Fold this sequence. Notes:
- This protein is of the alpha+beta class.
- It is about 50% helix and about 10% strand.
- It folds into 3 domains: about 80 residues, Double Stranded RNA Binding Domain (2-Layer Sandwich); about 100 residues, Tyrosine recombinase, N-terminal domain (DNA polymerase, domain 1); about 180 residues, Intergrase catalytic core (hpI Integrase, Chain A).
- A 4-stranded antiparallel sheet has the order 1-2-3-4, covered by helices on one side. Strands 5-6-7 form a 3-stranded antiparallel sheet.
- Helix 4 packs antiparallel against helix 5, helix 5 crosses helix 6 and helix 10 packs across helix 13.
Amino acid sequence: MKLTALQTKNAKPGRHADGNGLYLLVSPAGSKSWVLRIQVDGRRRDFGLGALQEVSLAEAREKAQEWRKLAKEGHNPSAEAKRQKASQTTFEDAARTFYEERKGSWKNTKHGQQWINTLEAYAFPALGKLSVDRIDADDIAQVLLPIWQSKAETARRVRQRIGSVLDYSKAKGWRQTEAPMRAVNTLLRGIKQPKVKSFAAMPYKDVPAFMARLDQGGATLGRLALQFLILTAARSGEVRGAVWGEIDEEQKLWTIPADRMKMDQEHQVPLTEATLSILQEAKEHSLLRPDDLVFPGLRRRSLSDMTLGKVLKSNGGQGFTVHGFRSSFRDWAAEEGYSNDWAEAALAHTVTNRVEAAYRRTKFLRQREGLMANWAIFCTSVSQTKI
Length: 387
């Protein structure tokens, strides 16, 4: 007896035959899916044809007929279906599917949009209509060559994103191999890219005098935020996004949640007397609710990175960057003989050695209390002298 649409709708848990090896499987939880039992390579095997909610009874029968024919011709129906899917899946289709599945995991929508925008601008014109199973190293290299020297950082990002899409396609069964990135690197080898410029850092010996100039300018939120950034060796985004709920003045601790950190790991920063003093001044500009920004900008929104950059330049910091103060701190710590591990933990850098990272759990919080206290004493030494 053939199944009817009503029977499939009301089917109870178990296996329900439609004939010629086609079955509707209903799990104890009630989910329903199609299975075709046929003989392939001399033995009977079950092949999934999809969920009932996606494949109707009529579509399941049509698909079962096609797969039975493939099996009679000596083909593996599942493998053949994947090959057909591969030939029909273009690079653009795969990239957009990959993007839609992962866009919710990016820290912010801007980063996610940049991810797909770079592919739209540089990869889709050449690769977009090609099936993912036919894209080789030379195809990728031809995309990268026009921007390899003129837009070096963009080219590196495009290369990485193309590789991610092709690796994803391999995992989905749409291509036989992973991205041929070693071959791509071989094709690009010898074509020099300009060196990536590091963030220009103020020499650490000049930081105390700079902090003194900030003091002389008054306690604006931009100045307070920059001083707090310097004394905590934090990233700009971490400071600009800080809220009062992250600050524990009694424990003298600033706890930055994982979703605001570059490496997706919670980071704790010991607060010194100098940083607590800055927070006291910042309180005058806030309602002090847990979700209120510590250093709010216009309309209670986050300060922009440009605002901190403007404060830096207007106080004699031309030619340097806000991010560079992390390097200033790192140089000072090295010159003063502090442990490399303590300094790296203060900067929230990850342990690059995988084996070491697997066993190291400590964040050296107690040791960093003294480290940050001495850094604050150093940074404010000119101001203290003047007082």
